[in-house]
Automatic annotation (TrEMBL):
Binding site for CoA: 39, 47, 83-84, 105, 147, 151, 161
Domain 4'-phosphopantetheinyl transferase N-terminal stretches: 27-94
InterPro entries in alphabetical order: 4-PPantetheinyl_Trfase_dom (IPR008278), 4-PPantetheinyl_Trfase_dom_sf (IPR037143), 4PPT_N (IPR041354), Enbac_synth_compD-like (IPR003542), P-Pant_transferase (IPR053566)
Domain 4'-phosphopantetheinyl transferase: 101-177
GO molecular function, one term: magnesium ion binding
Entry keywords, A to Z: Magnesium, Metal-binding, Transferase
Pfam families, A to Z: 4PPT_N (PF17837), ACPS (PF01648)
GO cellular component: enterobactin synthetase complex; plasma membrane
Official protein name in the record: 4'-phosphopantetheinyl transferase superfamily protein
Swiss-Prot/TrEMBL GO biological process terms: enterobactin biosynthetic process
Residues reported to bind Mg(2+): 105-107
């Protein structure tokens, strides 16, 4: 599913059914030695997908560590993003010669828990939700897009980005019963200086998909 909202030159993999014999990479096991079972499965499953994506790029199946704020540590010359939610683990990777950052996120296609929307959205975003009149859970789509935005932002800036620091707008290209697809733009409301020598960040463009009970968002920033 995730590959349908990513450019063709980005490697991706996803895992819906978790193999019972799937094990952590030996060098990653210390990172989750004290974790509960769900956390272990999410960690192992997402990194399993990452190694599948690395293979698509012609790279060896290395261990993927954890850096600042838990961000994955990619091999030199690689950018990428991981995501997981109940029933879904996924990864998207590319070479740094082509992309500056990638951000993906997956969420269940369900309404946000009560009280969460006000803490993760701007007034203009809540007004759009009020007027959208969709049968889809667009409140969770907004949250999913905010998460993908942060994942694309942090590797380039190593700075926190709050929910209030990006204004997200959406287009809807198609919609059916429990399904939908379209694009989104994240306008950054804080200075976007980066550490990679590239232009400061002002916005991200992404795509979204709702299918199979999941919401998926993806940003590929070049």
């Amino acid at each position: 599913m995730i590959e349908t909202i990513l450019p063709a030159d980005i490697a991706s993999a996803e895992l819906l059914d978790y193999p019972e014999d799937l094990k952590a990479h030996p060098a990653e096991e210390p990172l989750i030695a004290k974790s509960v079972e769900k956390r272990r499965r999410d960690f192992i499953g997402a990194r399993h997908c990452a190694r599948q994506a690395l293979a698509q790029l012609g790279e060896p199946p290395v261990a993927i560590g954890k850096g600042e704020r838990g961000a994955p540590v990619w091999p030199r010359g690689i950018v990428g993003s991981l995501t997981h939610c109940d029933g879904f683990r996924g990864a998207a990777l590319a070479h740094t010669l082509r992309y500056r950052s990638i951000g993906i996120d997956a969420e269940p296609h369900e309404t946000l828990p009560e009280g969460v929307l006000d803490s993760v959205s701007l007034p203009a975003e809540r007004e759009w939700l009020r007027l959208a009149g969709s049968g889809l859970h667009l409140d969770r789509l907004l949250f999913c897009a905010k998460e993908a935005t942060y994942k694309a932002w942090f590797p380039l800036t190593t700075r926190w980005l709050g929910f209030e620091d990006a204004h997200i707008t959406f287009t809807v290209e198609e919609q059916g019963a429990g399904t939908g697809a379209g694009t989104f733009r994240s306008e950054l409301l804080v200075p976007g200086q980066t550490g990679d020598g590239g232009a400061p960040l002002t916005s991200f463009d992404g795509r979204w998909l709702i299918t199979g009970g999941f919401i998926l968002t993806a940003i590929a920033h070049s």
